[in-house]
Amino acid sequence: MGHYKIMLADDEGIVIDSLKFIIEKEFGDTCSVEYAKTGRSVIELAERYRPDIAIMDIQMPGINGIEAMREIRETNQSVVFIVMSAYDKFDYAKEAIKLGVLEYITKPMERTRIVAALKKAMEQIDRERNKRSNDLLIKEKLETVMPIIESGLLYNLLFQEHFTEDIENYKQLLGIHQNYAYLLSVVCGETQEGNHMTNAVGSSVKMQQYVDLLREYLKEVYPGAILGMPMANKLPGLVPCEEGQMTYEERIALIDKSREIVRELKKRTQISFRIGISAIAPLEEAREAYKEATNALIMTTGSVAHVDDLPIGCTHEETYPVDLEKKLFAEVKNGEKDHAVATAETYFDLIARLHGEYLMNIRLKVLEFVLYAEYIAYNSGGMVYEFRDRADYLPTVMEMEELPALRKWFTDKIGEACRNVNTKASEKSMGAVEAAKAYIRNNYSKDISLDEVSAAVNISPYYFSKIFKEDVGEGFVEYLTKIRMDKAKELLTTTECSMKEICSMVGYADPNYFSRTFKKNVGVTPTEYKFEKNFE
């Protein structure tokens, strides 16, 4: 139970005295009490005293009780009203008051009614206070957690270590519904020399002290901005946008605001800042946009650089389907064969419609795209690049005089590149297992270990053991033993070598151990096996 400020409003001194007496006797020090006798003074007292509970008589000189309550409620949303009224005025009071009155008490008032009403009011106040303190706790927690969530989204986008589902979850948590954004690169240093910041290391340490201030300022200038944690002397930011384009006027306003914040931050922190701003891009291209923002700073010496002011990046003629091109290579990268082939077909058909008569240009474009798709496939690992592999590409493309043939060659090659991206992991594993099996077959007569075979195929023992078992269906030791036993059976039936010799030829140093292993795996001892086979 907390402390409650109670205000009494009644024009009769005797009523006020008896109310004070009841409250002090019942609630003691948990309550403080002040009172007023006219409507006007009640309003003034309420503003100064900020009561938790107000016991009001409806009929007071000057402003009537209802008017007074209306005014008090405007400046004090949480006050709890308890209303007193002479019996004959009661119906009128009940009708008129829509001001969140907790209890109506008729005069002359009973002590028990007053005490019960006050207890009820106190419970309501306690509930509200608890709720407020919980809300504050949640707010504080959110203020601690939000930077981590924001930074998580940026980290995932900038380092492309994400699944689409993760990005959707981040967007939901941060309330982002937009699909476009521009990126910020906020860089700090001691002073700016040309396009370079001096003492980047020292400043990055100093900037850590001002992270909260920096976040606060940046969020004011870039509403809705998602900000990362500082990495070295840079802080990345992302500002979600509804539209994929910004007007010239908007860009100028943005640059002006950015210049202002750089000046303001310098004043507050004694650190020099520069801000690079990218063009607006789809969220999935945030990484490229961030590079743009950073490059803008490298190419200029101003405190703020917007990429659209600079001759950076490639601009395309208006009809060129740049979105389709981006989509196609994203699908190739993910090994999405069906999607990529469909996009390649759409792209080809559009180019053919726009530039059908320029066959040579189409051949070149097809060649460029196929080579780049294959480059992506090679870089995704698991394939061996052969310099002379593609010698027939140019003659093949040059011979094609019809667009349908060129289209088919193009889409087939794109599909193949996707397949190679997809199968790279399994091919690498299969290749390694095949190589391991060959190594075992060639070296079973030596004392070979899992570590030795793993090293021979250049994969860590733990991972090798896993893929070997998945592919072969049994562990390395079982497989090696089986190879050795097969070889021993062959030697026992086709040669006259002694047990000791055979034992050594299949990689065992101890004849007793060999004999036990043989019996365990074949069911009989080596001698019995030789005898049985000879007898047959």
Description:
This protein has 21 helices and 13 strands. It has 536 residues and is an alpha/beta fold. Strands 6, 9, 10, 11, 12 and 13 form a six-stranded mixed sheet that branches. Strands 2-1-3-4-5 form a five-stranded parallel sheet, with helices on both faces. A two-stranded antiparallel sheet has the order 7-8. α8 (211-221) packs antiparallel against α9 and α15 crosses α17. The longest helix is centred in the N-terminal third of the chain and has 48 residues, at 111-158. It starts with a strand and ends with a helix. The mean pLDDT is 88.
Can you describe this structure in just a few lines?
The protein is an alpha/beta fold. Among the domains are: 4-130, Response regulator (Rossmann fold); 176-309, 2-Layer Sandwich (Alpha-Beta Plaits).
